[in-house]
Amino acid sequence: MAGLAIFAEKKQCTADAVYAKVAGSAGPILRGTQAEAVRFHDDTDQYTGVHAHGGPSTVDANRGLDGLLDRSDADVRGVKTGAASVAAVTHQVAGIHLEEEKKAPAKKGKKKAGGAAAAATSSGGPASSLQEVFAKFANGPEMDGKTFTKFAKDCKVINKKCTGTDIDLIFAKNKERTARKITFTQFTAALAECAAKRS
Predict the structure, then answer these.
(1) Chain segment 54-76, per-residue pLDDT in tens
(2) Among residues 145, 195, 192, 147, which one has the least CA distance to residue 169?
(3) pLDDT digits (tens, 9 = 90+) for 111-120
(4) Which of the listed residues 91, 183, 190, 193 has the most CB atoms within 10 Å of its CB?
(5) Residue 169 sits in a domain of what CATH number?
(6) Is 111 inside a domain boundary?
(7) Helical (H) or strand (E) element with 143
(8) Dihedral, CA atoms, 182, 186, 191, 196, nearest 10 degrees?
(9) What total of structural domains would you count in the chain?
(10) Contact call for residues 154 and 190 (beta carbons, < 8 A)
(11) CB 149 within 8 A of CB 168
(12) What φ, ψ does residue 143 adopt, rounded to 5°?
């Protein structure tokens, strides 16, 4: 009230006139910028997607702890009792159906490529011939460059004089121009070059 008396003194009018003016006001007058009319926002007939059906829900049913936690029976360590494994539940939720792989019965008759050599190498002992070594690494009648490099590393053919790069070059030199693999004959020729490079 003392403040209104000071206002009245400054305005050079009576205090009752200032009191009447303040009492007659309807509160603060907001003079902020008013947004323009936007057709896509204001006209609800223009809405598409989820907004056409009332908009997304921020209050879903059962969002409390009882809806989030699994309160089924478990042992002392937290392992669920009488329930499916976590993997099974996850696959069920994801809609994945897994079938256990069934082992096919061993076929009788023809053996794999290599015949007696493959049978001899399956024992796991050291190979008795160069043909057996080739059959062990190649798993077939031909050997690719990656396998030839692995053979050179495993058999300690690579050293300071015959490097991995040399092995790749020797392989490329001994294979046919358009081929990607070498035969046993080309393999023996490549080994002869490796021996010459090492000496």
Answers:
(1) 777 766 666 666 666 777 788 88
(2) 145
(3) 444 444 444 4
(4) 190
(5) 1.10.238.10
(6) no
(7) strand 143-144
(8) -130
(9) 1
(10) no
(11) yes
(12) -125, 135
